[in-house]
């Protein structure tokens, strides 16, 4: 089976967008993920407004043949206004991106679905999909919640994004993943981590954003997850390792992540 691989932003978060593309090409990735808006309260990333950086990034994409799989990140809260994400969508289209990573911060799932549908209406104008990622500390906590939002929204370009870490630390099951309608998953984020019973909010967020493990080095059932997803799913390596970044370059970390996942696949 021939998989396609994408280098996620968090794996090489210390690299600039052009550097991330170059690293992806050097390591043998097919795609790259780029962050334009922050996950927290930081300022927007330079790629969103810096025309020179956009030109440099597009030039490297063209030179290497690497393509942008996804851009990050849209957060849907109770007061969500999709119009404020127009600059993100426009930039994504200029980069040739395919997917937008979406987080659901509203635990009123019906309201979240309405907002998700409105965002999908905008995204489709830029030939982008909206890929909803359940995270256990957000309003959309698990696979069940995400599917409810997507199905209620009823948008043709609305998809679910599975993150191996969040899958493992929520009450989601492999059976739920395997039952997802064909064509509703574009990509899955792979990493590993130790098993923790009843993790705290701080543990959930710290591991997710700072210290994950290479695929195969922890206790997540990654082989089971591979078997549960469609064969044409893009596999994204999302392995932030801030401690190891002190002595390993971004390219070394990207290479290790890809090699680890390929070993797991066999």
How is the topology of this model organized?
Layout: E1 5-7, H1 17-27, E2 31-35, H2 51-64, E3 67-76, H3 86-95, E4 99-104, H4 109-124, E5 129-132, H5 143-153, E6 158-163, H6 164-168, H7 174-178, E7 185-190, H8 201-209, H9 222-228, E8 234-237, H10 250-265
Parallel strand pairs: 1-2, 1-8, 2-3, 3-4, 4-5, 5-6, 6-7, 7-8
Helix pairs in contact: 1-2, 1-10, 4-5
CATH class group? Alpha Beta
Query: Quick one: biggest sheet?
Result: 8 strands, parallel, barrel
Q: Rounded to an integer, what's the Rg over CA atoms?
A: 17 Å
CATH architecture, by name, is: Alpha-Beta Barrel
Shape: globular
Q: Would you give the CATH topology?
A: TIM Barrel
Strand count:
8
Series of secondary-structure elements, N-terminal to C-terminal = EHEHEHEHEHEHHEHHEH
Supply the number of helical segments: 10
Strand content: 15-25%
Mean pLDDT: 94
Low-confidence stretches: none
| Overall domain count | 1
Strand order of the largest sheet: 1-2-3-4-5-6-7-8
